[in-house]
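SEQUENCE-TO-STRUCTURE ENTRY
===========================
What this section holds: a protein sequence and its matching fold, both as plain text.
Question of interest: how does this chain fold, as expressed in backbone structure tokens?
***
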Amino acid sequence: MKSILHSHLYLELHKLISQALRYKPELLGLQLNREGWVPIVALVSGILDFTPHKVSLDNIIELLDSSPDKRFIKSSCGTLVKCADYGDIQLPPSTPPPILYYPITYSSALLAREEGILPKSHSDYVVSYGDKSGAVKSPHGLTKYIILKIVTPPMLTRGVSFYNINDVTWQIDAPVQPRDIKW
């Protein structure tokens, strides 16, 4: 079967798998263990039952192995998969650009003015973009949003670690405080 990389199907499946492994395992009929692992064969079976697209085990393995945001982790034996959490990330800290851009809904922006940008749970992390075009192209499915500017030098001074996920996507290990947002 041909590769699905760089296709609309790849993006569709990536979103489906992320949603099932992070928030709604019942979407694909999955039973995650306490640590969030699920057998890859169960994931593939769930996808085949859910989607009308013709995909193979090889397509799913390719997707899990090539995720640019390193969202999925396979077990050492290669038979289990889960979504990455903070503790799973094996990237070295690196120095970000002085400004990162973050797409956010208007209502959340009002909250961010008071409280900063907080993770929704312990497994969420703030993702920002190293250039404005990345934030404009990838607004996390938001329909009405603004782009906040996150000023990084004061955060680095406070000891916040930044991780470069790919060329433009950055992850941090702490919430963004209101004083770090340029309005």
